[in-house]
Amino acid sequence: MFSIALPKGRLADKTSKLLFNLGYIGETPADNRKLVFCDAERGVRYFLVKPSDVAIYVEYGVADIGVVGKDVLVEERPDVYELLDLKFGKCRMCVAAAEGYKPDMSRPVKVATKFVNTALAYFESVNRESEIIKLNGSVELAPLLGISDVIVDLVETGTTLKENNLKIIAEIMKVSARLIANKSAYKFKTREIDALAAALSVAVSAEK
Ligand code: PRP
Q: For the whole prediction, is pTM greater than 0.85?
């Protein structure tokens, strides 16, 4: 049995279509409440979890492999192998602020974000003291309502920033979906996992 953790949300469609086209899964999970799919014929079990939880399932060995954004890997530092850049789900981790923002260097910058570790590491790397305010979503609201000076968040099209009169002031890193593997599963199923990674690599390169 081969076990795969798939992310719900933005990366879901693309990931399941790729695996379906390569014959690893027999049906693409529809937008319903079913979360676990067993495909006895192919010897594959796959399940849908929150993107930020994929790496946890893989690290703990419940899933042999998974697909997760680089943002989660950098933020959570799970003990897994990162096997392949899947080159979709592309976006950027950025620092953004309201139009006309002027930094006050006499005090730490207040940063609202879901990505606490990433934000801390970034401001440390530019020698700027920061105070991090952890939010779980709609982070763009924070500077508008005055609880932070800036945000650290993912930017894909830039629409959310634009609609909230925010602008990018620094880019921290580029982000895309990655194939990850549990370390001991990789040891015991090297051939199968390498074959899947190779097939995915060919499929994503062919799409460009
Ligand atoms: C992400 C991110 C931004 C938005 C960026 O949020 O946190 O808010 O997408 O996309 P854009 O540049 O194309 O506008 P998501 O939709 O995942 O929801 P969340 O705020 O609840 O995390």
A: yes
